[in-house]
Structures are given as C-alpha cells and as structure tokens.
Amino acid sequence: MKPVIVAEKPSQAKAYGDAFQTVKREGYMEVAPNPIFPEGAFITWGIGHLVELKEPKAYDPKWNKWSLASLPILPVEYQFQVARGKSKQFNVIKKLIKETDTVINACDVDREGSNIFYSIYRQTGVRGKNILRLWINSLEVDEVREGFRNLRDNKQDLRLYEEARARQISDWLVGMNGSRLYSLLLQERGIQEVFAIGRVQTPTVFLIYQRQKEIEAFKPEPFYEIEGQFKAQKGNYKGKAKLRAKERQKAQELLDKHGLSEGKAEGVIKERKSTEKRMPPQPLHSLSSLQAAANRKWKYSPQKVLSVMQKLYEKKLVSYPRTDSRHITTAEFGYLAAQVESYQQLIDVPFPIASKTPKKRFVDNSKVQEHYAIIPTKSVPTTRRIAALPQDERNLYEEVMRTTLSMFHRDYRYEETKVVTDVKGLEFHTTGRTELDKGWKSLFSATKEAKQEPPLPELALQEKVAAAIAIIEGITSPPKPYTEGQLIAMMKTCGKFAEDEADSEILKEVEGLGTEATRSNIIETIKRHNYIEVKKNIVSVTEKGRMLCQAIEGNLLSSPSMTAKWESYLKKIGRGEGSADVFLATIGKFIEKLLEDVPEQLRSNGMPDQMPALQGSEIAICPRCRKGSIVSRRGAYGCTEHANGCKQSFPAVFLKKRLTAKHIEYLCTKGKTPVIKGFVSKNGKKFNASLELEEGKLKMRF
C-alpha cells in the first residue's frame, strides 16, 4: 500500500513533492515509485488548522447567550469539528488515510505541527494505522529525501500532541470564561465592549501597562556633575569628577574643598592605562534575536519577520525559522565551513577566513534539541536569484548570511584607554576607545549604536594640560517605552519582573511568556483587540487596554508567573511526566475561583460603578444636530457630525470630576443628570450637584 504523507500546508507539500517525481491531483500529489518509496506514495496537506474545538453552544444551548448566570463553561469532554470552508480538503485526507496502512506526519516539527496532524487524524475516525514522523530542519531536496529515509516513530510526537491539545483546550477555557466574565462585568459599568482574555495575551498587555505607568509616574529630577574640558599638546578631551549630586551646593562644596572655582585651571595627567579588548562575533540567530535585530534595523514587526522567514524557508534558502536555539551541530558546521567561500562570493564580502575550527560559542550538539539556529541552507543560490528577492526577503537573508559568516571572521579588536587627570587634587576620569580591527563588524553596515567613547589624543604621563572646569546640570530620564521589537525580548525575559524567586526561576526555565513560534502572533492579537497601538515603532496601551489592566490588577490573570507555571506543567506533559487531565482540572478550578473573586476585585481595584466611555463608542444621538452620535474622543466627548459643522461637545473632566458615558447619556436624552458627587471648586472644596444642558452648554443645579 502507498503511504500517505500529510503536510501542514500546500507550500510545504510542494517542497516535499520537489524531492520526487509527482503528478498533481485534486487535493493531493501522487509520488512515482522510487528507492525511498518503492510502491510510490501520496502527499496531501492541511490548510493550517483543519479541525477546531466546537463553540460553547454545541455543548449546551444556555452557553449561546452571554450571561453571568450561565458561567462557568466547563464541558465534561471536548468536541472537535472540521473548520468552516475546509471540509473538501479534509475529506480528501480522510479518504487517502482510510485506504492506506501507513501515515507519515510531515507537518512542522514542533508542538503545533503535532497538534495539526493528530487533530486531523483523530477527526477522520480511522484507527490502527502505522504512524511515522518526518523530522527535518530544511526543505532542501537532499534533506527531505534523507528525512524520509530515516523516519522516526511517533512516541515523542504523541506526547507533543497531548501537550498541544491540553494547551489548546486550556486557552479555549480561559478565553471563553474570562472574556465573558470581564466583558459582562464591565458592561454593567457602562462599557459596551468585548474584552478578550487570553492565558498569554492578558499578562503580556499588563507588562506593557506597567512600563507605561512607570513612565507616567516618573518625576524628572535634576543632578549635578563636575566636568573638565582639557587641552593637551596633541589634542583636546573631556573628563568627569566622581560625583553625581542632587544639589548644586554639593558640587560647589567639592570644588571649594580643592580650592577650585568654575573656569580656567591647570591639570596634570596622573594615570594613563591602555588595554586591548576583543569582542567575538555575535551568536547565530534564533527567531527572537532575528526579530529584535530586524526591528532595530528596518522597523519590521515581529510578525513580518516570521512571515518573511517562512517564505525564505519555503524557498529553501534558510533553515527552519521557528527555533529558539542559537547553536548548530557539528554536521551543519561541516557544510558551512566547506562552502564558506561560495557564501562570501554570493553577497560579495571577501575576507580572509580566520578559522574553520568549530567554536563552542556557535557549535554545541548538547544545546540543539528539536531545531538548530537559523542559517543558510546547503544549496548556494545564484547572485541573480538573491538580487531578484523582494527587499524585505533580501534584507533578512543577508542578515542571516552575514551573521553566519561572522563565525569565520576575526574578533572585533579595540584599545580602551583610561586616563586620570589631577586638578589640585581633584581627579577627573576619562575613557577613550580606539578601533584596531573591525573584524566581523565589517560584515555589517554601521548602525546607530549606544554612545561610545571617542578616541583620545596622544597623552603622556605627568603631561600638563590646560583645564576649564564647570558644574553641569543634567536631568534624570524616565524609563523608555517599548519598541515593537523589544516586546519579544520583554516576553522572553519577563522572569526579571517577578518578585518571587521561585516564580522568577520558572519563568527563566520556560523562557517567559509564549514560545518562539507564538510570540509574534500574540503581539498581533493584542493589537487586533485594540489593547495596544504601535506608532513609529513605539508601543503604548490604549484606553481599552488600560481599562482591562485596571480590571485585572492583583489577579492571577495579570501575572506572567501563573502562565509560566502552566507552561512548565505543559512541558511535563510533552515529556511524558504529567497528565493532561490533571492540568485541565487545575484550569477548571482556576476559572471557578475567577468567577468567585473578580466582582469583588473590581470594587477593591477602585473601578467606579460607571466608567468613562471608550474612545469611539457611541453613547447617544446628538442633542444639537440629531444626525450624528456623541462618541468618546481623547479628552472629550463630541459629535460624529463634527466635520459637517456640528459643534456639540462635552468635557471628559468637569471641575476635576470625570464624566462617565452614563452622565453624557442623561444629558443627551433627558437634558440633566442625577446628583453627581465629588466636584471640586476653585478654592479646592468638594461639593455635589447635578448637571443640566442648556443651549449646548453645561449648567450646574444645586
């Protein structure tokens, strides 16, 4: 019987087909007999996830309507269905699997690839087939053939599927229950919005919110330093005294102590020490390090990098991109070393090869598990083919190529010189850097690097120098907002934000929030839900995101540690050391606790009974023009017919009291509000009053 090869998507199936002689059929390819498959084979494909979990209403009609009374949603057993619009391809796979005795899982070699294959296989209802696993890191013809010659059994694959299925169901449970719970409770407070909750996405939004709060709470403070501008025989340089004071007086006292004042003086070079330093080439790229580099250099979003790298992988130009490893094995190093000169010619960067001996920094078999670092494939394309790539593909291909070539280049070398200049016993310190050999850095165009010390002029010990002394004022800087590229690193290293040491260790062990393959998708999801926005590559939390974070503050949903503990247990399931049933039972208890705790938490978090409307949400028909609607805008409420001349507006804050959507609705529909507590008069006294709308203006009634 001909074995059936199941690929994850059509492009992957085509790459497998390229390794054999095939005939295209409807929804599959037929492979001609060959030494690997003497009878021939069939290659078919999914379209990503062909099979998905059923909607809550499929289990119980009461779960069709969103209501607090119908929660929790905890089915006794979980049911799956063929995704809408995908049944034709599913039926092709089902027919082929029914008629064979051997099925080869050739989906992506990761947790999700195992999930896609087994969810399709189980949905067919077919049982008892011999299942084998293709495990490769490149779609090149040679590697594909080698992989099919050495198929693995499916023991590890089945464990990965159990892990992925438990992850899928837990995400569904947290999303279905958490989203309804928070949306309904916030709707009671006047916010007619859906707040999507996610096991990984919600703590990610909260980390961004925390950084934004730090920036907003930051109070700049002045500080004072003493700087010397020095003129030597062979050039000028600057130095600073070891002082950073909050008050100018402290700097003045130090000058007075040494009999100095601001202005001209004479100094002497007391110490001068030069050290040669080396910087080895940067490690090879994992997906996240490549996403960070591409965001820094070209402002590409993490999702764009993953998408472009997937295209390069399918074009057989780079190895598997969804990798968290920054090492390769001796096997990959062997082919890279053998072809290094060809790679150099390909991107026209000739340099003498420093060494073809593998270094532990890059080559370490023990640090490569499922996948190795992202490197160019064995087959060297033509320069014309690389030149014909779209700009973004060429940029990323060259980044991978140059990083790989830097393994064979010299270290970057520079000389660091430290100088102490004595002015009447007050020491001024200066550090200078002189480049000796660009080495591997010559492979990369100069980028805006962190401020580096300029080279120093030639200076001699005991040389006398003219000095100009000044007290200079600086101001402390707030923390910087995240760029989109930094979000990946923030998610990966969020263990450093955990206060509890054990939580911090777990976060380090599971490498933070999400996985290499999912982080960019999580960022896209929270953008799509309008929790964050990215402008000029800077990330900020929206009003909706801020509201969500205020609602979950202090709850486990805001904690990366909770997600990490879950991820840690999921990995145990993947290793065969944990149980999916135990894990999902824990998730069920967590959801029941949420339902119990959240209503009170919203009150203790200081969430008002009536919330200000979110930007863009319609509140009422405009009382002036009767055509438009009053909506919330930044810092005010206004009419949607503003562009056509309607000038009706309401302030978001009136006499230091924030007006809610409900207050505005009363004004628009009834012309007045009930008594509002907490207005503040000009002399700072609090008072209560109702508001009335007269000729479009707010009046107070006591």
Automatic annotation (TrEMBL):
<dbReference type="InterPro" id="IPR013824">
    <property type="entry name" value="Topo_IA_cen_sub1"/>
</dbReference>
<feature type="region of interest" description="Disordered">
    <location>
        <begin position="265"/>
        <end position="284"/>
    </location>
</feature>
<keyword id="KW-0460">Magnesium</keyword>
<keyword id="KW-0479">Metal-binding</keyword>
<keyword id="KW-0238">DNA-binding</keyword>
<dbReference type="InterPro" id="IPR005738">
    <property type="entry name" value="TopoIII"/>
</dbReference>
<dbReference type="Pfam" id="PF01131">
    <property type="entry name" value="Topoisom_bac"/>
</dbReference>
<dbReference type="InterPro" id="IPR034144">
    <property type="entry name" value="TOPRIM_TopoIII"/>
</dbReference>
<dbReference type="InterPro" id="IPR013825">
    <property type="entry name" value="Topo_IA_cen_sub2"/>
</dbReference>
<dbReference type="InterPro" id="IPR025589">
    <property type="entry name" value="Toprim_C_rpt"/>
</dbReference>
<dbReference type="InterPro" id="IPR023405">
    <property type="entry name" value="Topo_IA_core_domain"/>
</dbReference>
<comment type="similarity">
    <text>Belongs to the type IA topoisomerase family.</text>
</comment>
<dbReference type="InterPro" id="IPR013826">
    <property type="entry name" value="Topo_IA_cen_sub3"/>
</dbReference>
<keyword id="KW-0799">Topoisomerase</keyword>
<feature type="compositionally biased region" description="Basic and acidic residues">
    <location>
        <begin position="265"/>
        <end position="279"/>
    </location>
</feature>
<dbReference type="InterPro" id="IPR003601">
    <property type="entry name" value="Topo_IA_2"/>
</dbReference>
<keyword id="KW-0413">Isomerase</keyword>
<dbReference type="InterPro" id="IPR000380">
    <property type="entry name" value="Topo_IA"/>
</dbReference>
<dbReference type="Pfam" id="PF13342">
    <property type="entry name" value="Toprim_Crpt"/>
</dbReference>
<dbReference type="Pfam" id="PF01751">
    <property type="entry name" value="Toprim"/>
</dbReference>
<dbReference type="InterPro" id="IPR013497">
    <property type="entry name" value="Topo_IA_cen"/>
</dbReference>
<feature type="domain" description="Topo IA-type catalytic">
    <location>
        <begin position="157"/>
        <end position="595"/>
    </location>
</feature>
<dbReference type="InterPro" id="IPR006171">
    <property type="entry name" value="TOPRIM_dom"/>
</dbReference>
<protein>
    <recommendedName>
        <fullName>DNA topoisomerase</fullName>
        <ecNumber>5.6.2.1</ecNumber>
    </recommendedName>
</protein>
<dbReference type="InterPro" id="IPR003602">
    <property type="entry name" value="Topo_IA_DNA-bd_dom"/>
</dbReference>
<dbReference type="InterPro" id="IPR023406">
    <property type="entry name" value="Topo_IA_AS"/>
</dbReference>
